[in-house]
Design a protein that fits this description.
This protein is an alpha/beta fold and 296 residues long. It has twelve helices and eight strands. The chain has a single domain, classed as Rossmann fold, CATH 3.40.50.1820. Strand 3, helix 1 and strand 4 form a beta-alpha-beta unit.
């Protein structure tokens, strides 16, 4: 019989910001830290937290500016600033070592944390998140043109995603019907309810624009991989239209301790494959903690 832990839904004030988070398991200094993508929230981890919490401490914050957490001011809404707030949040929780789960727009956040404090990261779990040129497919060409020349003409050529239809497409784009019908509609409705609050579209466009600074850090991230070699688990939805599957091979090339699982799923694979991914993740975490002597 598989036992599941109860998930707690909490708030904590850190550096003047209210951070909403979900946690499962007994709080400890060693944890699994789950960082969600955009435009979602810790709601993404609702089905894997009970599985992880049965064997360790697992915590999933809403990144500032997402979910129920407070948003920074426009000038502070960058991946680096978000990473400092997550670090402060973990310090306040008393979490000092962790397996770090990153995906989509939490990938830049997580790599700022990892390169700043590599001693804290016991292992990396990458789910449809990009840190190599191989993952940036042709869909990024208009984005690169806008980054190089942020004119009104180039902005107009960008895909429409910061509206309801675009939010929905983030979940369903590229999926065949048999997978699209598995996605609960609450996900994109909740995300759009959040994004449609006054000022939030502009905030999130600023964060999108900051992604170019993440791309500029790819070589620094590669040096981190080569120098520190954290055990790496890659979980990938093969129908992702944002990040190409070549990203999986790029990780395999760089990481000595590497494991990959490719799913018949899309960008948000936990919406359709939480049970399968959760079992793989739990086994990976258990092995990492056993090797590291963690208290998970």
């Amino acid at each position: 019989m598989t036992f599941a832990a109860k998930t707690r839904h909490l708030d904590r004030e850190v550096d003047g910001f209210r951070i909403h988070y979900r946690e499962a398991g007994v709080p400890a200094s060693t944890a699994v830290v789950l960082l969600h993508g955009s435009p979602s929230s810790s709601f993404s981890f609702r089905d894997v937290l009970p599985v992880l919490g049965a064997q360790t401490y697992a915590v999933a914050p809403d990144l500032p500016g997402f979910g129920f957490s407070d948003a920074p001011a426009m000038e502070e809404f960058t991946f680096e600033r978000l990473s400092h707030l997550v670090d402060a949040f973990l310090e306040d929780l008393g979490v000092h070592r962790y397996v770090l789960y990153i995906t989509d727009f939490s990938t830049p956040v997580g790599y700022h944390m990892a390169t700043r404090h590599p001693e804290r990261v016991l292992a990396l779990v990458v789910q449809n998140g990009n840190a190599h040129e191989e993952g940036l497919n042709e869909a990024w060409e208009p984005v690169r043109r806008f980054w190089a020349e942020p004119t009104e003409q180039n902005r107009a050529a960008l895909p429409e995603w910061l509206n309801f239809e675009g939010t929905r497409a983030t979940y369903l784009s590229g999926l065949p019907d048999h997978l699209a019908e598995l996605h609960p509609r609450e996900s994109w409705h909740l995300d759009w309810q959040h994004l449609s609050a006054p000022g939030y579209v502009d905030l999130h466009f600023r964060l999108f624009n900051d992604y170019r600074n993440h791309v500029a850090r790819f070589e620094e991230i590669a040096r981190y991989h080569r120098a520190h070699q954290p055990p790496c688990l890659v979980l990938w939805g093969r129908h992702d239209t944002f990040f190409g599957i070549g990203e999986v091979l790029a990780y395999e090339r760089e990481m000595a301790a590497f494991e990959a699982h490719i799913f018949d799923a899309g960008h948000f694979l936990l919406e359709t494959h939480a049970r399968e991914a959760g079992e793989i993740l739990a086994a990976f975490v258990r092995n990492v903690f056993e090797r590291s002597g963690g208290d998970g």
